[in-house]
Amino acid sequence: MSHRRILTSLAGLAAAALAVPTFAAASPAPAPAAPSVSTSATRAAYTGSAQDQAATKAFYDAVMKSAQAKRAKAGNAAAAVTVTYAVDAPTFRNQINSSTSIWNSSVDNVTLVEGSSYDFYYTEGNDPRGSYASTDGHGRGYIFLDYAQSQQYDPLRITAHETGHVLGLPDHYSGPCSELMSGGGPGPSCTNAYPDANERARVDQLWANGIASAAKAAYSK
Ligand SMILES: [Zn+2]
């Protein structure tokens, strides 16, 4: 268990200041803010309103910025488009692996890869507001997976849905269960964890011309 998850149960700024995911210890990035200090205006929830879309875009922008910086450093613009993640969510390890498989077999123009030089990370804990994608106080994107919500809603669908935000898809809570980005909208009985044909096509369209164009096109009308 990471410091973050132990300390999330403690109130106060001291706890937040010490909340460092174990895998982030060697990273140059400063410690992420604890999820407990984020507000409804700074996150995109699994169940929520369209107002969360600005937060979804902020999350996506952070992930894109990281991925683009790495590509620029590598000096290889023609390299296969990959988005790299780290996992500090041991309870959801199987769901994260499955979500990656689902997405990598569903789209052609972008690939999710687990690695130490990560563009975003998964973490877990208890938050009354449920699961969400957000940015920490230092511009790093993360996906928070909530224990209680994952007992009510299908945890693989939650994980694959939040990962859909990484690939540029906005929430569409009014959609049917066959859509992944309808999230909690269709209710807890919906266990579909696969993007539908439109969602797959949208991701491939966004990433058809690489990271820079995907960063620009996603979440814009
Ligand atoms: Zn969402």
Automatic annotation (TrEMBL):
<feature type="binding site">
    <location>
        <position position="165"/>
    </location>
    <ligand>
        <name>Zn(2+)</name>
    </ligand>
</feature>
<feature type="active site">
    <location>
        <position position="162"/>
    </location>
</feature>
<keyword id="KW-0479">Metal-binding</keyword>
<feature type="disulfide bond">
    <location>
        <begin position="177"/>
        <end position="190"/>
    </location>
</feature>
<dbReference type="InterPro" id="IPR024079">
    <property type="entry name" value="MetalloPept_cat_dom_sf"/>
</dbReference>
<dbReference type="GO" id="GO:0008270">
    <property type="term" value="F:zinc ion binding"/>
</dbReference>
<dbReference type="GO" id="GO:0006508">
    <property type="term" value="P:proteolysis"/>
</dbReference>
<keyword id="KW-0732">Signal</keyword>
<keyword id="KW-0862">Zinc</keyword>
<protein>
    <recommendedName>
        <fullName>Extracellular small neutral protease</fullName>
        <ecNumber>3.4.24.77</ecNumber>
    </recommendedName>
</protein>
<keyword id="KW-0106">Calcium</keyword>
<feature type="signal peptide">
    <location>
        <begin position="1"/>
        <end position="24"/>
    </location>
</feature>
<feature type="binding site">
    <location>
        <position position="161"/>
    </location>
    <ligand>
        <name>Zn(2+)</name>
    </ligand>
</feature>
<dbReference type="GO" id="GO:0004222">
    <property type="term" value="F:metalloendopeptidase activity"/>
</dbReference>
<keyword id="KW-0482">Metalloprotease</keyword>
<keyword id="KW-0378">Hydrolase</keyword>
<feature type="binding site">
    <location>
        <position position="154"/>
    </location>
    <ligand>
        <name>Ca(2+)</name>
    </ligand>
</feature>
<dbReference type="Pfam" id="PF02031">
    <property type="entry name" value="Peptidase_M7"/>
</dbReference>
<dbReference type="GO" id="GO:0005576">
    <property type="term" value="C:extracellular region"/>
</dbReference>
<comment type="similarity">
    <text>Belongs to the peptidase M7 family.</text>
</comment>
<dbReference type="InterPro" id="IPR006311">
    <property type="entry name" value="TAT_signal"/>
</dbReference>
<keyword id="KW-0645">Protease</keyword>
<dbReference type="InterPro" id="IPR000013">
    <property type="entry name" value="Peptidase_M7"/>
</dbReference>
<feature type="binding site">
    <location>
        <position position="171"/>
    </location>
    <ligand>
        <name>Zn(2+)</name>
    </ligand>
</feature>
